[in-house]
Amino acid sequence: MINIIGGGPIGCQTASLLAKKNEVTLYEQKSKIGSPIQCTGILSQTINEIIKLKKDFIANKVYSTRIFAPNKKFIQIHFKKPNIIVWRNKFDQYFEEKALDNGVDIIYNSTYFEKNKIKNLKTKRTKTINPNILIGADGPLSKVRKIHSFSKEKHLQGVQALIKIKNDNVVDFYPHIGTYAWAVPESNNLLRVGVAAKKDTGLIFRDFVKRYKGKVVEWQSGIIPIHNPQFKTQKKNVFLIGDAAAQIKNTTGGGLIPGLLAAKALTKSINNKENYDSLWRKEVGKSLWTHYQIRKMMNKFTNKDWDDLINTFNKESLKEVLGSGSRDKPIEMIFKTLIKEPKLMLFAKKLF
Ligand SMILES: Cc1cc2nc3c(=O)[nH]c(=O)nc-3n(C[C@H](O)[C@H](O)[C@H](O)COP(=O)(O)OP(=O)(O)OC[C@H]3O[C@@H](n4cnc5c(N)ncnc54)[C@H](O)[C@@H]3O)c2cc1C
What we know:
The protein is an alpha/beta fold. The protein has two domains: about 1-295, FAD/NAD(P)-binding domain (3-Layer(bba) Sandwich), CATH 3.50.50.60; about 295-350, no CATH class. The chain contains nine helices and 17 strands. It has helices at about 10-20, 90-100, 145, 200-210, 255-270, 275-300, 305-315, 315-325, 330-340; strands at about 1-5, 25, 40-45, 60-70, 75-85, 105, 110-115, 115-120, 125-130, 135, 155-165, 170-175, 180-185, 190-195, 215-225, 235, 240. The strands form three sheets. It has an eight-stranded mixed β-sheet with strand order 3-5-4-12-13-14-11-15. Strands 6-2-1-10-17-16 form a six-stranded mixed β-sheet. The longest helix has 23 residues, at about 275-300. About 40% of the residues are buried. Flavin-adenine dinucleotide binds near residues 8, 137, 243, 248 and 254.
């Protein structure tokens, strides 16, 4: 018997893959999967390699992005294949339905609160579970991680507003504001505008949002884990996955694609008794390591470094490389840009 804690997209996807060969019960503390929404829902073209996209959860497709420097100059990159913007509630419910179709027993209103103990939040009754395998897919504040004494994670705080404003369907990205900031079009008159930062996120957001004058129709906030390549994700029969394992890109806060890829690795590991840590690192670890190193370098950037970097990228040949690659495959992109512009190596000295 496999028990999964957490019915987010990564828990449900892991459950549905494992249920093809195993008996799986998933415990979710909420009564309804998919809300409240705490996500921008932007996915690179790599999502097409993982699932078949459904019209039901696609809010929008975007074909270009502007990346801004502190001096207000920007480069505009046109994607060869569009990025997909999803409705997170419907996206999560798609994975929930897949899990149910594959025979997963989902038990709602049930929280994992002590070692091998589940509490029903409605009846307040507790029960003991005794699974052969326990999987923590319970998000950035994972109880499984804490209760089973995995190492502590660091986090960013994300704040986002849904703003009614006419726009040109281009993603704006500010890698120098907070840890990063964004404006992502949900439609031609709605933007998802947000900031992620280690501290003072609210203050940074209040200043940043002045650039997008419009009516705020909804506020959202959430925790974004910081990936650390040293982080252990398995202890005997207890596994962590998704945000609980900080499987996330440190440059953008994108955790959906890495988590979904890790779900495939965890399923293979359990079904074939192979090492989970090496399998998920083979699938997605190199990409997350690269984003970790890039962010580490960027954390040392001055405003002048940012201005110089954006200025260096302002060449058609480099913009074409960025537009034809996927941020979920950064190593390939880095090699191609370095071949076209070896001067970019100069920024790497910030790593040391
Ligand atoms: C502001 C913001 C913007 C973001 N934008 C993007 C983006 O554009 N693209 C992208 O790819 N990623 C984005 N992310 C990250 C993305 O939301 C996460 O990586 C993703 O949700 C991880 O999925 P998960 O299933 O691991 O965790 P979650 O989605 O957090 O799901 C965890 C589930 O576990 C349940 N749970 C928690 N504790 C318990 C417990 N003790 N017992 C039972 N159940 C429990 C929760 O209720 C929840 O349903 C963003 C995050 C934030 C905060």
